[in-house]
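Most newcomers find our protein records easier to grasp once they have seen one. Read left to right, the backbone structure tokens trace the chain's path through space. Nothing more is needed to start thinking about how sequence determines fold. An example says more than a description, so a record of this kind follows:
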Amino acid sequence: FRLDRVGMKYGERAVLSDVTAAFETSRMSAIAGPNGAGKSTLLGIMAGLRGRYAGSCSYRGRDLRRWPKRAFARSVAFVPQSLSVEFPFTAEQVVMMGRTPFGNGLFEAPGDRDTVERAMSTTDTLPFRARDFRSLSGGERQRVVLASALAQSPEFLLLDEPTTFLDLKHQISMYRLLRDLCRSGLGVVTVTHDLNLAMTYADRVLLLDNGCVAADGLPEDVLTPANVGRIFGVHAAVHDTGA
């Protein structure tokens, strides 16, 4: 992914201004910043969900607005903060929906079942594969949505606050999983408000403030006490956890 001077307004209010950055496979990049900094808007642009922005956002050298939607969905998967399902689909059926870009009408493509099985095993969602998605807890739903994204067999995974509904154990489990996926070649870009998770697991942090890039680089170079104090208005100390 490459963004060049990306900007966006909601009405007269600028939510992003001159954002320039590049994201690579095999790395976990965390987009962090205070509420209203433009994190989710930036991720939505990268996911092809938002138009009418200034500048350019390209993937594999092609502007996102020129990508056919099905082809783009075969390479890039998006995990929202939450997913509402109104019909009685099982968890497994929701994960199978991730195979839609590869299907032909109502029929499954070869290998769909095996891909779904692997995705659910990876996210530890097989134990409730037959349950109604609507009956799952927030954390269980989030893991199912991640499994659905992995079932797309993407090269890039974009996640908007993926640990919002997870308890501490599953937050750590989620980020360890994302780190392992990066080591296997996947590119991961995650929006997070949790600076501890960003510091511990990300390879790189893009720090936004008022829609602008305040810092970009290694977590230890970006999430310094000075930057955290200036942007978040809190006193911070940095400790090496060795995770």
In short: The two ends are 28 Å apart (CA to CA). The mean pLDDT is 89. The beta strands are 2-10, 13-22, 28-32, 54-59, 62-63, 76-79, 156-160, 187-191, 204-209, 212-217.
